[in-house]
Input
Amino acid sequence: MIKKYIILILIIFFGVFSGYSQKVDSLIVKRNHYSFTIGGGWTHYINSLEIGKKDARINFAGISLKFFWEPEHRLSLGLETGFYQIYKVKINDYMNVTGQAGMSAIPLLLTVRMRIVDHFHLSVGAGLAMMFNKVSGMGQNINSTILSLSNYQFSGSYIYPLHKHWLVGGEFKVLDFGKADDWIYSVQAICTIRL
Amino acid sequence: MRTRILLFILLTLALYSCNKDTEVLIPSAGPNSFMKETYPLNSASKSLMEGVYQVGSGSDFFGDHVILKWNRTSLSIACSNGKYFVMEVGHLDSVIFVQGYWRNGYTDDTGLASLVIAKEEGGTTILTGNGNQKIILRGAFGLESGLPDQPLVLNYLRPFSDKVKKSNFYILAHRSGGRTSDRLPASENSIEMINYTEKFGSTGIEVDVRLSVDGIPFIYHDPDINIRLTKKGPLAGPIENYTWAQLSTFVRLIHGEKIPTLEDALTFVVDSTLLRFVYLDMKGNPGTMEKVIPIQKRILERAKNVGRDLIVVVGIPSSTVLNDLMNYPDYQTIPSLCELTVDDVHQVNSMVWAPRWTLGTQNDLVQQMHNEGRLAVCWTIDPISWIQDYIENGLFDGLLTNFPYVVAYYHYIQE
Output
Protein backbone atom coordinates (compact mmCIF):
# COMPACT_ATOMS: atom_id res chain seq x y z
CA MET A 1 0.00 0.00 0.00
CA ILE A 2 2.81 2.38 0.98
CA LYS A 3 4.56 1.42 -2.25
CA LYS A 4 1.53 2.55 -4.26
CA TYR A 5 1.45 5.95 -2.49
CA ILE A 6 5.14 6.47 -3.19
CA ILE A 7 4.65 5.72 -6.92
CA LEU A 8 1.65 8.09 -7.08
CA ILE A 9 3.61 10.91 -5.38
CA LEU A 10 6.50 10.40 -7.81
CA ILE A 11 4.16 10.56 -10.82
CA ILE A 12 2.56 13.80 -9.60
CA PHE A 13 5.95 15.30 -8.79
CA PHE A 14 7.50 14.50 -12.19
CA GLY A 15 4.33 15.50 -13.95
CA VAL A 16 4.27 18.95 -12.40
CA PHE A 17 8.00 19.33 -12.94
CA SER A 18 7.86 18.36 -16.57
CA GLY A 19 4.87 20.64 -17.15
CA TYR A 20 6.65 23.55 -15.55
CA SER A 21 9.66 23.01 -17.84
CA GLN A 22 7.46 23.78 -20.87
CA LYS A 23 6.66 27.29 -19.70
CA VAL A 24 7.52 29.95 -22.36
CA ASP A 25 10.73 31.82 -21.74
CA SER A 26 9.85 35.50 -21.86
CA LEU A 27 13.09 36.27 -23.71
CA ILE A 28 12.12 34.21 -26.78
CA VAL A 29 10.44 36.24 -29.60
CA LYS A 30 6.89 35.15 -30.42
CA ARG A 31 6.87 33.65 -33.93
CA ASN A 32 3.27 32.55 -34.26
CA HIS A 33 1.04 35.46 -35.30
CA TYR A 34 -2.42 36.31 -36.44
CA SER A 35 -2.96 39.18 -38.81
CA PHE A 36 -5.88 41.15 -40.10
CA THR A 37 -5.60 42.96 -43.43
CA ILE A 38 -7.86 45.48 -45.09
CA GLY A 39 -7.34 46.56 -48.66
CA GLY A 40 -8.98 48.93 -51.09
CA GLY A 41 -8.37 50.05 -54.61
CA TRP A 42 -9.19 49.79 -58.29
CA THR A 43 -10.87 46.76 -59.87
CA HIS A 44 -11.15 46.05 -63.56
CA TYR A 45 -13.48 43.52 -65.17
CA ILE A 46 -11.96 41.50 -68.01
CA ASN A 47 -14.93 42.12 -70.25
CA SER A 48 -16.11 38.77 -71.58
CA LEU A 49 -19.73 39.79 -72.05
CA GLU A 50 -21.22 38.85 -75.38
CA ILE A 51 -24.41 40.82 -74.79
CA GLY A 52 -23.98 44.47 -73.79
CA LYS A 53 -20.19 44.35 -74.07
CA LYS A 54 -19.82 47.85 -75.49
CA ASP A 55 -22.32 49.29 -73.03
CA ALA A 56 -20.61 47.88 -69.97
CA ARG A 57 -18.89 49.92 -67.28
CA ILE A 58 -16.00 47.80 -66.03
CA ASN A 59 -13.87 49.90 -63.64
CA PHE A 60 -14.86 50.23 -60.01
CA ALA A 61 -13.51 50.50 -56.48
CA GLY A 62 -13.27 47.29 -54.48
CA ILE A 63 -12.33 46.29 -50.96
CA SER A 64 -10.88 43.15 -49.47
CA LEU A 65 -10.57 41.76 -45.95
CA LYS A 66 -8.19 38.99 -44.92
CA PHE A 67 -7.47 37.12 -41.75
CA PHE A 68 -4.27 35.04 -41.61
CA TRP A 69 -2.65 32.61 -39.27
CA GLU A 70 1.08 33.14 -39.70
CA PRO A 71 3.18 30.36 -38.20
CA GLU A 72 6.94 30.70 -38.10
CA HIS A 73 7.54 29.18 -41.53
CA ARG A 74 6.92 30.78 -44.91
CA LEU A 75 3.34 29.60 -45.42
CA SER A 76 0.31 31.34 -43.95
CA LEU A 77 -3.27 30.15 -43.98
CA GLY A 78 -6.26 32.43 -43.94
CA LEU A 79 -9.72 33.49 -44.98
CA GLU A 80 -10.42 36.22 -47.46
CA THR A 81 -13.54 38.14 -48.33
CA GLY A 82 -14.38 41.50 -49.85
CA PHE A 83 -16.83 43.27 -52.09
CA TYR A 84 -16.35 43.72 -55.81
CA GLN A 85 -18.64 45.39 -58.32
CA ILE A 86 -17.90 43.40 -61.46
CA TYR A 87 -19.76 45.32 -64.17
CA LYS A 88 -22.77 47.47 -64.92
CA VAL A 89 -24.52 47.50 -68.29
CA LYS A 90 -27.02 50.08 -69.53
CA ILE A 91 -28.99 49.22 -72.69
CA ASN A 92 -31.78 50.95 -74.59
CA ASP A 93 -34.15 48.47 -76.18
CA TYR A 94 -35.89 48.90 -79.51
CA MET A 95 -38.68 50.90 -77.85
CA ASN A 96 -36.06 53.21 -76.35
CA VAL A 97 -36.70 51.97 -72.84
CA THR A 98 -33.56 51.96 -70.71
CA GLY A 99 -32.60 48.91 -68.71
CA GLN A 100 -29.64 48.52 -66.41
CA ALA A 101 -28.06 45.31 -65.17
CA GLY A 102 -25.14 44.91 -62.82
CA MET A 103 -23.22 42.13 -61.16
CA SER A 104 -21.33 42.29 -57.87
CA ALA A 105 -19.81 39.62 -55.66
CA ILE A 106 -18.73 38.81 -52.15
CA PRO A 107 -16.19 35.97 -52.16
CA LEU A 108 -15.27 33.81 -49.17
CA LEU A 109 -12.03 32.07 -49.97
CA LEU A 110 -9.64 29.82 -48.09
CA THR A 111 -6.27 31.30 -48.93
CA VAL A 112 -2.70 30.04 -48.68
CA ARG A 113 0.03 32.69 -48.77
CA MET A 114 3.74 32.12 -49.16
CA ARG A 115 6.58 34.55 -48.46
CA ILE A 116 8.85 34.34 -51.47
CA VAL A 117 11.48 36.88 -50.44
CA ASP A 118 11.45 39.46 -47.66
CA HIS A 119 8.17 41.41 -47.67
CA PHE A 120 6.98 39.82 -50.92
CA HIS A 121 4.21 37.22 -50.88
CA LEU A 122 2.27 35.16 -53.39
CA SER A 123 -1.09 33.70 -52.52
CA VAL A 124 -3.76 31.48 -53.97
CA GLY A 125 -7.27 30.96 -52.70
CA ALA A 126 -10.39 28.98 -53.50
CA GLY A 127 -13.89 28.96 -52.14
CA LEU A 128 -17.44 30.25 -52.41
CA ALA A 129 -18.89 33.53 -53.62
CA MET A 130 -22.27 35.14 -53.39
CA MET A 131 -23.03 36.95 -56.62
CA PHE A 132 -25.64 39.66 -56.81
CA ASN A 133 -27.42 40.46 -60.05
CA LYS A 134 -29.37 43.69 -59.96
CA VAL A 135 -31.60 44.68 -62.88
CA SER A 136 -33.62 47.87 -63.10
CA GLY A 137 -35.93 49.34 -65.70
CA MET A 138 -38.14 47.49 -68.19
CA GLY A 139 -41.00 46.71 -65.90
CA GLN A 140 -39.59 45.83 -62.53
CA ASN A 141 -36.44 46.06 -60.46
CA ILE A 142 -35.09 42.54 -59.97
CA ASN A 143 -32.47 41.41 -57.49
CA SER A 144 -31.12 37.87 -57.78
CA THR A 145 -28.57 36.20 -55.55
CA ILE A 146 -26.50 33.37 -56.97
CA LEU A 147 -24.21 31.02 -55.09
CA SER A 148 -21.03 30.37 -57.01
CA LEU A 149 -19.21 27.28 -55.77
CA SER A 150 -15.89 27.38 -57.60
CA ASN A 151 -14.05 30.67 -57.30
CA TYR A 152 -10.34 31.41 -57.23
CA GLN A 153 -7.92 34.21 -56.51
CA PHE A 154 -4.25 34.58 -57.29
CA SER A 155 -2.33 37.51 -55.89
CA GLY A 156 1.07 38.98 -55.26
CA SER A 157 1.66 41.47 -52.47
CA TYR A 158 4.42 43.60 -51.03
CA ILE A 159 3.96 44.22 -47.29
CA TYR A 160 6.40 46.54 -45.50
CA PRO A 161 6.52 46.60 -41.69
CA LEU A 162 6.21 50.12 -40.24
CA HIS A 163 6.03 48.85 -36.70
CA LYS A 164 5.95 45.56 -34.83
CA HIS A 165 2.18 45.42 -35.28
CA TRP A 166 1.53 47.62 -38.30
CA LEU A 167 2.38 46.86 -41.91
CA VAL A 168 1.41 48.56 -45.18
CA GLY A 169 1.84 47.63 -48.81
CA GLY A 170 0.23 46.92 -52.13
CA GLU A 171 -1.36 43.96 -53.78
CA PHE A 172 -2.18 42.83 -57.31
CA LYS A 173 -4.96 40.30 -57.42
CA VAL A 174 -6.84 38.27 -60.02
CA LEU A 175 -10.26 36.83 -59.10
CA ASP A 176 -12.34 34.29 -60.96
CA PHE A 177 -16.05 33.87 -60.24
CA GLY A 178 -16.79 30.44 -61.66
CA LYS A 179 -20.57 30.42 -61.89
CA ALA A 180 -20.63 33.31 -64.35
CA ASP A 181 -17.09 32.77 -65.66
CA ASP A 182 -16.24 36.35 -64.75
CA TRP A 183 -12.63 37.46 -64.16
CA ILE A 184 -11.51 40.68 -62.56
CA TYR A 185 -8.16 42.03 -61.50
CA SER A 186 -7.55 44.52 -58.77
CA VAL A 187 -4.73 46.75 -57.55
CA GLN A 188 -5.13 47.60 -53.89
CA ALA A 189 -3.36 49.42 -51.09
CA ILE A 190 -3.36 47.23 -48.01
CA CYS A 191 -2.90 47.79 -44.31
CA THR A 192 -2.17 44.93 -41.90
CA ILE A 193 -2.43 44.64 -38.15
CA ARG A 194 -0.30 41.77 -36.83
CA LEU A 195 -1.23 40.47 -33.38
CA MET B 1 11.40 29.08 -60.14
CA ARG B 2 11.16 26.95 -63.28
CA THR B 3 8.79 24.58 -61.49
CA ARG B 4 6.56 27.48 -60.47
CA ILE B 5 6.41 28.81 -64.02
CA LEU B 6 5.56 25.32 -65.27
CA LEU B 7 2.81 24.98 -62.66
CA PHE B 8 1.40 28.37 -63.66
CA ILE B 9 1.33 27.37 -67.34
CA LEU B 10 -0.36 24.04 -66.52
CA LEU B 11 -2.98 25.81 -64.40
CA THR B 12 -3.66 28.30 -67.19
CA LEU B 13 -4.05 25.48 -69.69
CA ALA B 14 -6.38 23.59 -67.34
CA LEU B 15 -8.60 26.65 -66.94
CA TYR B 16 -8.56 27.38 -70.65
CA SER B 17 -9.52 23.79 -71.44
CA CYS B 18 -12.83 24.37 -69.65
CA ASN B 19 -13.92 26.67 -72.49
CA LYS B 20 -16.76 25.20 -74.44
CA ASP B 21 -17.19 24.58 -78.13
CA THR B 22 -20.80 25.15 -78.98
CA GLU B 23 -20.98 24.02 -82.54
CA VAL B 24 -19.70 21.30 -84.74
CA LEU B 25 -18.57 22.57 -88.08
CA ILE B 26 -21.32 22.09 -90.64
CA PRO B 27 -19.40 21.73 -93.88
CA SER B 28 -20.74 23.61 -96.84
CA ALA B 29 -20.03 23.52 -100.51
CA GLY B 30 -19.83 27.30 -100.28
CA PRO B 31 -21.24 30.13 -102.35
CA ASN B 32 -19.79 28.68 -105.53
CA SER B 33 -21.92 25.55 -105.26
CA PHE B 34 -23.67 24.87 -108.56
CA MET B 35 -26.83 23.78 -106.71
CA LYS B 36 -28.27 27.25 -107.17
CA GLU B 37 -28.10 26.65 -110.93
CA THR B 38 -30.33 23.55 -110.64
CA TYR B 39 -34.11 23.27 -110.66
CA PRO B 40 -36.18 21.96 -107.74
CA LEU B 41 -38.00 18.65 -107.95
CA ASN B 42 -41.77 18.53 -107.90
CA SER B 43 -43.61 16.60 -105.21
CA ALA B 44 -44.23 13.55 -107.42
CA SER B 45 -40.52 13.26 -108.16
CA LYS B 46 -39.68 13.66 -104.50
CA SER B 47 -42.07 10.89 -103.62
CA LEU B 48 -40.41 8.54 -106.11
CA MET B 49 -37.02 9.08 -104.47
CA GLU B 50 -38.19 8.08 -101.02
CA GLY B 51 -37.59 4.57 -99.75
CA VAL B 52 -35.09 2.09 -98.40
CA TYR B 53 -31.66 2.00 -100.04
CA GLN B 54 -28.88 -0.55 -99.85
CA VAL B 55 -25.46 1.00 -99.27
CA GLY B 56 -22.88 -0.20 -101.78
CA SER B 57 -19.62 1.64 -101.31
CA GLY B 58 -19.52 3.29 -97.89
CA SER B 59 -21.39 0.58 -95.98
CA ASP B 60 -18.56 0.20 -93.47
CA PHE B 61 -19.18 3.85 -92.51
CA PHE B 62 -22.94 4.26 -92.87
CA GLY B 63 -24.24 0.72 -92.38
CA ASP B 64 -25.83 -1.67 -94.86
CA HIS B 65 -29.05 0.27 -95.38
CA VAL B 66 -30.28 3.85 -95.23
CA ILE B 67 -33.68 5.44 -95.68
CA LEU B 68 -34.35 8.50 -97.83
CA LYS B 69 -37.20 10.74 -96.73
CA TRP B 70 -38.11 14.21 -97.87
CA ASN B 71 -38.83 16.89 -95.33
CA ARG B 72 -40.27 20.36 -95.90
CA THR B 73 -37.07 21.82 -97.30
CA SER B 74 -34.53 19.10 -98.00
CA LEU B 75 -33.81 15.40 -98.30
CA SER B 76 -32.97 13.51 -95.11
CA ILE B 77 -30.95 10.32 -95.21
CA ALA B 78 -30.95 8.34 -91.96
CA CYS B 79 -28.59 5.49 -91.09
CA SER B 80 -28.83 2.70 -88.54
CA ASN B 81 -25.77 3.85 -86.57
CA GLY B 82 -26.74 7.42 -85.66
CA LYS B 83 -25.37 9.07 -88.77
CA TYR B 84 -27.57 11.21 -90.99
CA PHE B 85 -27.38 13.40 -94.08
CA VAL B 86 -29.01 16.76 -94.75
CA MET B 87 -29.05 17.20 -98.53
CA GLU B 88 -30.15 19.77 -101.07
CA VAL B 89 -31.51 18.33 -104.31
CA GLY B 90 -31.91 19.82 -107.76
CA HIS B 91 -31.83 18.72 -111.36
CA LEU B 92 -30.30 19.84 -114.62
CA ASP B 93 -31.87 18.16 -117.64
CA SER B 94 -32.39 14.58 -116.46
CA VAL B 95 -29.51 14.45 -113.99
CA ILE B 96 -30.33 14.89 -110.32
CA PHE B 97 -27.72 16.40 -108.02
CA VAL B 98 -27.78 15.70 -104.29
CA GLN B 99 -25.39 17.74 -102.13
CA GLY B 100 -25.03 18.44 -98.45
CA TYR B 101 -23.38 17.16 -95.32
CA TRP B 102 -23.42 14.11 -93.10
CA ARG B 103 -23.09 14.06 -89.34
CA ASN B 104 -22.83 11.46 -86.61
CA GLY B 105 -25.34 12.63 -84.01
CA TYR B 106 -23.61 10.81 -81.18
CA THR B 107 -20.16 12.27 -81.91
CA ASP B 108 -18.75 15.33 -83.64
CA ASP B 109 -17.89 13.52 -86.88
CA THR B 110 -19.10 15.30 -89.97
CA GLY B 111 -18.22 15.91 -93.60
CA LEU B 112 -19.44 16.87 -97.05
CA ALA B 113 -21.39 14.54 -99.29
CA SER B 114 -22.05 14.82 -102.99
CA LEU B 115 -24.20 12.38 -104.97
CA VAL B 116 -25.63 12.23 -108.48
CA ILE B 117 -28.48 10.26 -110.01
CA ALA B 118 -27.54 9.81 -113.63
CA LYS B 119 -30.13 10.01 -116.38
CA GLU B 120 -30.07 6.25 -117.01
CA GLU B 121 -29.79 5.35 -113.29
CA GLY B 122 -33.11 6.79 -112.21
CA GLY B 123 -32.87 10.45 -113.24
CA THR B 124 -35.38 10.12 -116.03
CA THR B 125 -37.65 7.86 -113.99
CA ILE B 126 -37.79 10.31 -111.08
CA LEU B 127 -38.39 13.37 -113.25
CA THR B 128 -40.95 11.84 -115.62
CA GLY B 129 -42.53 9.16 -113.48
CA ASN B 130 -41.98 6.65 -116.28
CA GLY B 131 -39.75 3.60 -116.34
CA ASN B 132 -38.65 1.23 -113.66
CA GLN B 133 -37.71 2.62 -110.32
CA LYS B 134 -34.08 1.45 -110.33
CA ILE B 135 -32.44 4.42 -108.69
CA ILE B 136 -28.73 4.61 -107.94
CA LEU B 137 -27.10 7.54 -106.18
CA ARG B 138 -23.36 7.63 -106.86
CA GLY B 139 -20.85 9.98 -105.39
CA ALA B 140 -18.58 10.44 -102.43
CA PHE B 141 -18.34 11.70 -98.89
CA GLY B 142 -15.55 13.52 -97.13
CA LEU B 143 -14.33 14.19 -93.63
CA GLU B 144 -14.67 17.61 -91.96
CA SER B 145 -14.28 20.32 -94.59
CA GLY B 146 -12.30 18.13 -96.95
CA LEU B 147 -13.65 17.49 -100.41
CA PRO B 148 -15.67 14.28 -100.77
CA ASP B 149 -13.11 11.65 -101.72
CA GLN B 150 -14.47 8.39 -100.33
CA PRO B 151 -16.90 6.53 -102.59
CA LEU B 152 -20.55 6.29 -101.64
CA VAL B 153 -23.20 4.41 -103.61
CA LEU B 154 -26.85 4.02 -102.60
CA ASN B 155 -29.00 1.49 -104.50
CA TYR B 156 -32.78 1.74 -104.31
CA LEU B 157 -34.13 -1.38 -102.62
CA ARG B 158 -37.82 -0.86 -101.97
CA PRO B 159 -40.46 1.75 -101.13
CA PHE B 160 -41.62 2.25 -97.58
CA SER B 161 -43.87 -0.58 -96.47
CA ASP B 162 -47.65 -0.26 -96.32
CA LYS B 163 -47.37 -0.55 -92.55
CA VAL B 164 -45.18 2.55 -92.48
CA LYS B 165 -47.28 4.45 -94.99
CA LYS B 166 -50.47 3.80 -93.05
CA SER B 167 -49.05 4.51 -89.62
CA ASN B 168 -49.45 7.86 -87.90
CA PHE B 169 -46.22 7.57 -85.93
CA TYR B 170 -44.76 10.72 -84.34
CA ILE B 171 -41.00 11.32 -84.35
CA LEU B 172 -40.76 13.82 -81.53
CA ALA B 173 -37.62 15.88 -81.14
CA HIS B 174 -36.58 17.08 -77.71
CA ARG B 175 -36.18 20.77 -76.78
CA SER B 176 -37.84 22.19 -79.88
CA GLY B 177 -35.89 19.91 -82.16
CA GLY B 178 -32.43 19.32 -80.73
CA ARG B 179 -30.24 20.02 -77.75
CA THR B 180 -27.65 22.76 -77.63
CA SER B 181 -25.23 20.24 -76.08
CA ASP B 182 -25.36 18.19 -79.30
CA ARG B 183 -23.73 21.11 -81.12
CA LEU B 184 -26.38 21.68 -83.69
CA PRO B 185 -26.64 24.68 -86.02
CA ALA B 186 -29.35 26.35 -83.89
CA SER B 187 -29.96 26.70 -80.16
CA GLU B 188 -32.42 24.47 -78.35
CA ASN B 189 -35.84 25.98 -77.64
CA SER B 190 -35.50 28.56 -80.39
CA ILE B 191 -37.59 29.31 -83.45
CA GLU B 192 -34.49 28.62 -85.54
CA MET B 193 -34.31 25.08 -84.15
CA ILE B 194 -38.03 24.55 -84.79
CA ASN B 195 -37.31 25.59 -88.36
CA TYR B 196 -34.37 23.16 -88.62
CA THR B 197 -35.60 20.04 -86.90
CA GLU B 198 -37.58 18.63 -89.82
CA LYS B 199 -34.22 18.10 -91.54
CA PHE B 200 -33.56 15.47 -88.85
CA GLY B 201 -36.76 13.64 -89.74
CA SER B 202 -38.79 15.08 -86.86
CA THR B 203 -42.55 15.25 -87.22
CA GLY B 204 -43.17 16.81 -83.82
CA ILE B 205 -41.40 18.64 -81.04
CA GLU B 206 -41.29 19.05 -77.29
CA VAL B 207 -40.71 22.55 -75.91
CA ASP B 208 -40.02 23.63 -72.32
CA VAL B 209 -42.43 26.27 -71.07
CA ARG B 210 -41.62 28.81 -68.37
CA LEU B 211 -43.30 32.01 -67.21
CA SER B 212 -41.69 35.45 -66.91
CA VAL B 213 -42.36 37.42 -63.75
CA ASP B 214 -44.83 39.60 -65.69
CA GLY B 215 -46.79 36.58 -66.91
CA ILE B 216 -45.48 35.90 -70.43
CA PRO B 217 -44.96 32.18 -71.23
CA PHE B 218 -41.67 31.58 -73.06
CA ILE B 219 -39.62 28.52 -73.97
CA TYR B 220 -36.38 27.73 -72.16
CA HIS B 221 -35.20 24.59 -70.40
CA ASP B 222 -33.03 25.38 -67.37
CA PRO B 223 -34.31 27.14 -64.26
CA ASP B 224 -31.51 29.69 -64.44
CA ILE B 225 -29.75 31.81 -67.03
CA ASN B 226 -26.41 30.18 -67.67
CA ILE B 227 -23.61 30.10 -70.20
CA ARG B 228 -24.50 26.53 -71.18
CA LEU B 229 -27.62 27.77 -72.96
CA THR B 230 -27.07 31.50 -73.44
CA LYS B 231 -24.43 33.89 -74.63
CA LYS B 232 -22.70 35.53 -71.73
CA GLY B 233 -24.75 38.55 -70.74
CA PRO B 234 -25.47 40.72 -67.77
CA LEU B 235 -28.38 38.68 -66.38
CA ALA B 236 -27.90 35.66 -64.15
CA GLY B 237 -29.90 33.60 -61.71
CA PRO B 238 -33.45 32.21 -61.92
CA ILE B 239 -34.84 33.08 -65.35
CA GLU B 240 -38.42 33.35 -64.16
CA ASN B 241 -37.41 36.26 -61.90
CA TYR B 242 -37.16 38.59 -64.89
CA THR B 243 -39.70 40.47 -66.97
CA TRP B 244 -40.14 39.53 -70.58
CA ALA B 245 -38.73 42.92 -71.68
CA GLN B 246 -35.59 42.30 -69.63
CA LEU B 247 -35.10 38.80 -71.03
CA SER B 248 -35.75 39.99 -74.54
CA THR B 249 -33.20 42.81 -74.19
CA PHE B 250 -30.41 41.21 -72.17
CA VAL B 251 -30.49 37.50 -73.07
CA ARG B 252 -29.51 35.71 -76.28
CA LEU B 253 -29.35 31.96 -76.77
CA ILE B 254 -26.03 30.33 -77.52
CA HIS B 255 -26.25 30.92 -81.27
CA GLY B 256 -27.51 34.47 -80.83
CA GLU B 257 -31.25 33.84 -81.09
CA LYS B 258 -33.78 35.60 -78.87
CA ILE B 259 -35.67 33.45 -76.40
CA PRO B 260 -39.07 33.06 -78.07
CA THR B 261 -42.40 33.56 -76.39
CA LEU B 262 -44.52 30.43 -76.45
CA GLU B 263 -47.04 32.15 -78.69
CA ASP B 264 -44.40 33.17 -81.25
CA ALA B 265 -42.95 29.65 -81.29
CA LEU B 266 -46.33 27.98 -81.77
CA THR B 267 -47.39 30.50 -84.40
CA PHE B 268 -44.22 29.62 -86.31
CA VAL B 269 -45.07 25.91 -86.04
CA VAL B 270 -48.48 26.54 -87.61
CA ASP B 271 -47.45 29.05 -90.25
CA SER B 272 -44.05 27.80 -91.32
CA THR B 273 -43.61 24.07 -90.66
CA LEU B 274 -45.28 20.74 -91.33
CA LEU B 275 -44.85 19.54 -87.73
CA ARG B 276 -47.86 17.61 -86.48
CA PHE B 277 -47.34 17.40 -82.71
CA VAL B 278 -46.22 19.87 -80.05
CA TYR B 279 -45.68 18.75 -76.48
CA LEU B 280 -45.58 21.67 -74.04
CA ASP B 281 -43.38 20.52 -71.17
CA MET B 282 -44.51 22.67 -68.25
CA LYS B 283 -41.33 23.62 -66.38
CA GLY B 284 -42.61 26.82 -64.91
CA ASN B 285 -43.88 27.80 -61.51
CA PRO B 286 -47.49 27.12 -60.45
CA GLY B 287 -49.74 29.50 -62.35
CA THR B 288 -48.06 28.84 -65.69
CA MET B 289 -50.95 26.65 -66.81
CA GLU B 290 -53.58 29.40 -66.72
CA LYS B 291 -51.41 31.55 -69.00
CA VAL B 292 -50.59 28.70 -71.38
CA ILE B 293 -54.04 27.26 -71.99
CA PRO B 294 -55.47 30.37 -73.72
CA ILE B 295 -52.42 30.38 -76.03
CA GLN B 296 -52.92 26.67 -76.74
CA LYS B 297 -56.54 27.37 -77.68
CA ARG B 298 -55.62 30.25 -80.00
CA ILE B 299 -52.96 28.16 -81.73
CA LEU B 300 -55.26 25.15 -82.21
CA GLU B 301 -57.86 27.50 -83.68
CA ARG B 302 -55.24 29.02 -85.98
CA ALA B 303 -54.17 25.54 -87.14
CA LYS B 304 -57.78 24.54 -87.75
CA ASN B 305 -58.37 27.65 -89.84
CA VAL B 306 -55.53 26.74 -92.21
CA GLY B 307 -56.48 23.05 -92.34
CA ARG B 308 -53.59 21.81 -90.27
CA ASP B 309 -54.02 18.54 -88.34
CA LEU B 310 -51.90 19.70 -85.41
CA ILE B 311 -51.83 18.33 -81.88
CA VAL B 312 -50.74 20.76 -79.14
CA VAL B 313 -50.84 19.25 -75.66
CA VAL B 314 -49.94 20.70 -72.28
CA GLY B 315 -47.64 18.33 -70.43
CA ILE B 316 -48.32 17.07 -66.92
CA PRO B 317 -44.96 15.99 -65.51
CA SER B 318 -45.84 16.18 -61.79
CA SER B 319 -48.71 16.16 -59.36
CA THR B 320 -48.15 19.90 -58.85
CA VAL B 321 -48.85 20.59 -62.51
CA LEU B 322 -51.73 18.10 -62.40
CA ASN B 323 -53.32 20.12 -59.60
CA ASP B 324 -52.57 23.31 -61.50
CA LEU B 325 -54.51 21.95 -64.48
CA MET B 326 -57.38 20.73 -62.30
CA ASN B 327 -57.84 24.27 -61.01
CA TYR B 328 -58.71 25.32 -64.55
CA PRO B 329 -62.42 25.34 -65.53
CA ASP B 330 -63.41 22.44 -67.80
CA TYR B 331 -59.92 20.98 -67.41
CA GLN B 332 -61.04 17.66 -68.88
CA THR B 333 -61.54 19.35 -72.24
CA ILE B 334 -57.97 20.72 -72.36
CA PRO B 335 -55.76 18.60 -74.67
CA SER B 336 -53.08 17.32 -72.33
CA LEU B 337 -50.26 14.82 -72.14
CA CYS B 338 -49.88 13.06 -68.80
CA GLU B 339 -46.53 11.61 -67.76
CA LEU B 340 -47.99 10.15 -64.57
CA THR B 341 -50.13 7.06 -64.01
CA VAL B 342 -52.99 5.75 -66.10
CA ASP B 343 -55.34 6.76 -63.27
CA ASP B 344 -54.10 10.34 -63.58
CA VAL B 345 -54.69 10.14 -67.34
CA HIS B 346 -58.30 9.22 -66.64
CA GLN B 347 -58.67 11.91 -63.97
CA VAL B 348 -57.89 14.78 -66.36
CA ASN B 349 -58.97 12.95 -69.52
CA SER B 350 -55.57 13.37 -71.14
CA MET B 351 -55.33 12.96 -74.88
CA VAL B 352 -51.88 11.37 -74.55
CA TRP B 353 -50.23 9.11 -71.98
CA ALA B 354 -46.44 9.52 -71.87
CA PRO B 355 -44.52 7.22 -69.53
CA ARG B 356 -40.75 7.44 -69.28
CA TRP B 357 -39.02 4.92 -71.54
CA THR B 358 -37.18 3.17 -68.72
CA LEU B 359 -40.50 1.67 -67.58
CA GLY B 360 -40.51 -0.57 -70.65
CA THR B 361 -42.82 -0.91 -73.62
CA GLN B 362 -45.85 -1.61 -71.36
CA ASN B 363 -47.80 -2.89 -74.35
CA ASP B 364 -50.84 -3.85 -72.28
CA LEU B 365 -51.28 -0.33 -70.92
CA VAL B 366 -50.53 1.26 -74.29
CA GLN B 367 -53.18 -0.98 -75.85
CA GLN B 368 -55.58 0.10 -73.12
CA MET B 369 -54.91 3.73 -74.06
CA HIS B 370 -55.58 2.94 -77.71
CA ASN B 371 -58.82 1.21 -76.78
CA GLU B 372 -59.87 4.37 -74.94
CA GLY B 373 -59.08 6.49 -77.99
CA ARG B 374 -55.93 8.01 -76.54
CA LEU B 375 -52.38 8.18 -77.84
CA ALA B 376 -49.28 6.91 -76.06
CA VAL B 377 -45.77 8.19 -76.56
CA CYS B 378 -42.69 7.66 -74.42
CA TRP B 379 -39.81 9.94 -73.44
CA THR B 380 -36.86 10.54 -73.79
CA ILE B 381 -35.31 7.55 -75.48
CA ASP B 382 -31.80 7.88 -76.92
CA PRO B 383 -29.82 4.58 -77.04
CA ILE B 384 -29.95 3.16 -80.56
CA SER B 385 -30.63 -0.43 -79.48
CA TRP B 386 -33.55 0.66 -77.30
CA ILE B 387 -35.03 2.83 -80.03
CA GLN B 388 -34.89 -0.18 -82.35
CA ASP B 389 -36.45 -2.43 -79.71
CA TYR B 390 -39.28 0.01 -78.88
CA ILE B 391 -40.17 0.49 -82.53
CA GLU B 392 -40.01 -3.20 -83.42
CA ASN B 393 -41.71 -4.54 -80.29
CA GLY B 394 -43.64 -1.63 -78.81
CA LEU B 395 -47.01 -0.14 -79.62
CA PHE B 396 -46.26 3.51 -78.90
CA ASP B 397 -47.63 6.16 -81.26
CA GLY B 398 -44.41 8.12 -81.05
CA LEU B 399 -41.05 8.41 -79.36
CA LEU B 400 -39.52 11.55 -77.89
CA THR B 401 -35.78 11.58 -78.48
CA ASN B 402 -32.68 13.69 -78.86
CA PHE B 403 -31.81 11.69 -81.98
CA PRO B 404 -34.85 11.86 -84.29
CA TYR B 405 -32.90 10.53 -87.31
CA VAL B 406 -32.37 7.25 -85.46
CA VAL B 407 -36.07 6.96 -84.72
CA ALA B 408 -36.75 7.88 -88.36
CA TYR B 409 -34.45 5.12 -89.62
CA TYR B 410 -35.96 2.36 -87.49
CA HIS B 411 -39.50 3.55 -88.17
CA TYR B 412 -39.28 3.90 -91.94
CA ILE B 413 -37.28 0.72 -92.47
CA GLN B 414 -40.01 -1.48 -90.96
CA GLU B 415 -41.44 -4.03 -93.35
Summary: The radius of gyration of chain A is 25 Å.
